[in-house]
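Ticket opened by: R.M.
Priority: normal
Category: complex prediction / small molecule

The reporter submitted a protein together with magnesium ion and asked that the result be attached to this ticket for the collaborator who will pick it up next week. Submitted input follows.
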Amino acid sequence: MKLALPIQGAHEQATFRENQLLKQKVIVGSVLSVMIIMLAFPQLTPFVPDFDLQIRNWLLLALAAPVELWVGWDFLKGAWHNLRHRVATMDTLVAFGTGAAFLYGGVVTLFPRLFLDHNLLLETYFDVAAVVTTLILLGRYFENRAKSQTSSAIKKLLDLAPKIAHRVKTDDSQQTIAQNTSEVGLRSPRFGEAGLRYTSDVHGVAIEDIPLNQVVKGDLLLVKPGEKISVDGLVVEGYSAVNESMITGESVPIDKVKGDQLIGGTLNATGSLTMKATGVGKDTVLAHIIQLVAAAQASKAPIQRLADQISAVFVPIVLIVTVVTFVSWFIFGPQSQAGSLALINAVAVLLIACPCALGLATPTAMMVGIGLGAQNSILIKDAESLERARNVKSIIFDKTGTLTKGELTVTDAMVLTGPMSAKQLLGLAASAERKSEHPVAKAIVKSAQSQHIPLTWPTSFESLPGQGVKAYVSRKTIVIGNERLMKLFNIQLDSLEKQLEQIAQSGQTPLVVAVGQEPIGIIAIADELKKDADQIVDSLKKLHIISWLVTGDKKEVATAIAKKIGIEHVLAEVLPHDKAAQVQRLKLTGHTVAMVGDGVNDAPALAAADVGIAMGKGSDVAIESGSVTIMNNDLKSVVNAIRLSRATIRKVKQNLFWAFIYNIVLIPVAAGALYPFGGPLLNPILAGAAMALSSVSVVGNSLLLKRFRVK
Ligand code: ADP
Ligand code: MG
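Result attached by the on-call engineer:
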């Protein structure tokens, strides 16, 4: 198996090798088991000679030994390990069961006198030891196969990265000369910041194809039309559209020009790009996603700890039942067969009770669930998050960037007093906002730039999160923000308030621009609702989940938006650091609370929630914050995440039920409880076979989860 990414190293390879060995053991075990059965039951197969009983036992011992000691080695090792730590697991049951059958046969074979002297039959149960060991191992092989099948989600992600990259050779010596003389000559084009130069294609630039793992940070790479982008980086030359849907879920190709970011694994459309590698190996967005999914799939859900706890009690009880079975049959069993029936029934109890399927119930379903999520742009951090999402009763949505597109635009700039024009107002505001990263600020700057309004840089600048900014521009103190900010600076609004309210009631955000203590203008900002925003509340209601809206925006704006999409509970004018407190408050009512935010300024609230759902576009910040990351920025995925959680936990419960009911019902049968009433005994071989089947059926049941469809 060729491994594409460095993070996929040791662990996966070890699993692969382990499975190869398991396969060999199953094959050897099967062949030997068939031979043992043919030999043990000569009446079944006419062509096997009828050996003398003692010779036959020796032959059986020779065939069964490798099965017990090599094929079943892991069970013995596991049981020994457990014994030393005074715990009991399924390995204990399997090892005790097959070990007892094997040892008994060994004693009969080695010391036949012991039995003949007491008029006992020279009966051995090597067939039981061999067949059961092989069957259980077969179950384990299927289990491992199923596990690697369920992580097909990871394989698909791995396949996104191309195997090679085209590196543009930069000649170090030429570079220094060029830098020293600043003579470009044939060496063009020139690469900005890095100061790298190379001779262009036409002038015979050298391109070499290198394996992905040899790409290092700072390499210049050529991305040809129609090719996948190999690592994360920045465009340094060229123009193209890139399909990023595999990472972000955004189906419209994104235009990329110099300075734009590229994500490894995405597909370049028609143009040719030269990029500088900024993230390689473990540091790419894709590698982060893969790591996250792999870690999540390997993580334990609380419900699984429950299964472990039950096993810890269950197994010792089974061991006691086994001893009781053995002793009772030995004392009360039919005279001639008491010994062998005692042994065979005790072994049957051990084997039927083995809670193999129990151990499989949770992890297999979780792996399928998390894998399915990843394939549908829902990244789930761990099994616990997936489990918790099922219980969500309240979901708090952030407004900007979560329910709305977050593409804010200036719809109006109104001058209140003075000789200023609307353009001048916008110019002043934009100059003041230039240093702010807030979407509101960016919208104002963008609007000014699109109207070619000349901007200056503020000489001093202060940002007040959740309120606005204060800056010193063109020898004036400018304050821009909401009413809370105006109050903070004692700026009187008086007659303005009505006007602000009107704008807000239309669902737009009004901002006041003040010079010194005097309000001089109002800027209105609008944002569009995301396309499925009006359906989400309804879909959640059907799942009996209450929706909330939380925002730092003005109450009227929030209410107007909430009304449009049917949210009844609104928390408005909440300062960024109070969002987390609001989440906590709701949690106190006993509800499991999910918070949906765009992952940047909502991070504390995401962390405070029982389930933090980050609306990300594959950015690192977004992935780190919530326990669930919605990669495609699609609100429907929030509903799907909860549906997926519920479906997965339902599967786990089904699995647990089947694993348990099976053990509990059959243990008394195996112990021979029905025998006195004329009922059947459970042959250990049948017990082993049924158990292997039960493991397979639990895994199968988990795989059925793959039928889950996103809506
Ligand atoms: P949200 O909760 O919608 O993401 P924030 O808490 O970041 O919003 O901001 C709340 C409000 O504070 C905004 O609606 C806006 O009125 C005001 N505000 C925040 N930053 C700025 C800024 N840089 N310029 C002007 N107003 C701002
Ligand atoms: Mg926001």
